[in-house]
């Protein structure tokens, strides 16, 4: 992997873009896939990209090389859709919600308590599910092709001191959020949302930019958030999904065989991360407790209070998500 120490993100990105332009598949037998990732390589999404790299390089016998630029070296999470869609870099990993500006329907996964069980999540993210097909097709209109989805787990709330057991405890608290709909949820239950990238949340907690936060528990582990927060509330309000995308024009320039290798590696990577998600979360919770955090489980009455307070978010979302939003919501909730 190339080191960009001393270069600005913009300068590094220009070098990558220039390299991609000079080494496109139409001009060389060998292909290099550069992947931008906001998380550290030790995170489970980073390890998943490493698995993809190993698989595709093995399947292609080295004809396709994969270079990983982790920890937002080149692009923040919010910059990935544009960077990949415009061809500045071949591949990227982004939170699904980063597409909400162009495709409001993607935030169906962040509607409160719609995807609060593993069974509901698996049904929706299966490659042949109507929810997934509709979203993948919409993202194709941004210049990117979805290769696979990466499970990140359920949303948990982070705080110092008392757990966030009920909605009234959110009142007037500044909260780190990572998406539009989750921000509306925080606001609806009385908090003050602040959009902060995953790579910047540690400093936000450390500096007191926000009072509380939200993430997946695996993010607590990979970013050592126990150094700045001491309590996890298992609210399971939404499901966090990341997607791995490749520039559509670049993809079309690959040979059929190269596409087959990449697709096969992508399927293996997706199956691996999805099947291991429960184990990943269990280990993350255990490590959080070992590092001094308290984990609070909501009671049935707590959950009902949260659901009641959250319902206006769903009602409002459906008004603005258009026909596609209604379609994915209906498909997600039909059972």
- Report the average pLDDT across residues: 91
Q: If you compute it from the alpha carbons, what radius of gyration comes out, rounded to the nearest whole angstrom? A: 20 Å
The number of helices is 13
How far apart the termini lie comes to 45 Å
Q: Which range best describes the helical content: under 10%, 10-25%, 25-40%, 40-55%, 55-70% or over 70%?
A: 40-55%
Structure report:
The protein has 13 helices and 10 strands. Residues 1-28 have low confidence and may be disordered. The chain has 335 residues and is of the alpha/beta class. It is globular.
List keywords for this structure.
335 residues; alpha/beta; D-Maltodextrin-Binding Protein, domain 2; 2 domains; eight-stranded mixed β-sheet; two-stranded parallel ribbon; 13 helices; 10 strands; 44% helix; disordered N terminus
Give a brief rundown of this model:
This protein has 335 residues and is α/β, with parallel strands linked by helices. It contains 13 helices and ten strands.
Which helices and strands appear, and what pairs or packs with what?
Layout: H1 9-22, E1 31-36, H2 44-59, E2 64-69, H3 80-85, E3 91-95, H4 118-125, H5 130-140, E4 144-159, E5 174-177, H6 180-188, E6 192-195, H7 201-207, E7 213-216, H8 217-222, E8 231-234, E9 239-247, H9 248-252, H10 256-275, H11 277-290, E10 294-297, H12 300-320, H13 322-333
Parallel strand pairs: 1-2, 1-3, 5-6, 8-10
Antiparallel strand pairs: 3-9, 4-7, 4-8, 4-9
Helix pairs in contact: 2-10, 5-13, 6-12, 12-13
């Amino acid at each position: 992997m190339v080191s960009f120490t001393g270069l600005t993100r913009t300068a590094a990105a220009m070098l990558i873009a220039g390299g991609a332009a000079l080494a496109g598949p139409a001009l060389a037998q060998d292909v290099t896939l550069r992947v931008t990732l906001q998380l550290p390589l030790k995170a489970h999404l980073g390890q998943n990209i490493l698995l993809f790299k190993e698989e595709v390089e093995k399947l292609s016998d080295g004809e396709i090389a994969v270079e990983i630029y982790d920890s937002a070296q080149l692009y923040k999470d919010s910059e990935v859709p544009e960077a990949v869609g415009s061809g500045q870099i071949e591949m990227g990993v982004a939170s699904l919600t980063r597409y909400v500006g162009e495709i409001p329907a993607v935030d169906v996964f962040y509607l409160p308590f719609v995807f609060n069980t593993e069974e509901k999540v698996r049904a929706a993210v299966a490659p042949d599910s109507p929810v997934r097909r509709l979203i993948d097709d919409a993202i194709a209109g941004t210049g990117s092709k979805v290769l696979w989805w990466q499970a990140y787990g359920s949303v948990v709330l982070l705080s110092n001191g008392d757990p966030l057991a009920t909605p009234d405890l959110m009142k007037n608290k500044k909260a780190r959020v990572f998406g539009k709909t989750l921000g509306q949820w925080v606001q609806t239950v009385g908090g003050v949302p602040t959009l902060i990238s995953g790579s910047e949340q540690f400093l936000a907690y450390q500096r007191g930019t926000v009072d509380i936060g939200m993430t997946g528990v695996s993010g607590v582990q990979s970013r050592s958030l126990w150094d700045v927060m001491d309590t996890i509330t298992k609210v399971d309000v939404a499901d966090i999904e990341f997607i791995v995308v490749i520039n559509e024009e670049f993809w079309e320039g690959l040979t059929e065989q190269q596409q087959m290798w990449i697709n096969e590696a992508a399927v293996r990577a997706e199956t691996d991360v999805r099947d291991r998600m429960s184990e990943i979360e269990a280990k993350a919770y255990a490590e959080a407790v070992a590092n001094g955090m308290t984990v609070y489980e909501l009671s049935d009455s707590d959950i009902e209070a949260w659901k009641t307070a959250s319902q206006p978010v769903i009602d409002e979302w459906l008004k603005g998500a258009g026909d596609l939003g209604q379609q994915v919501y209906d498909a997600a909730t039909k059972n």
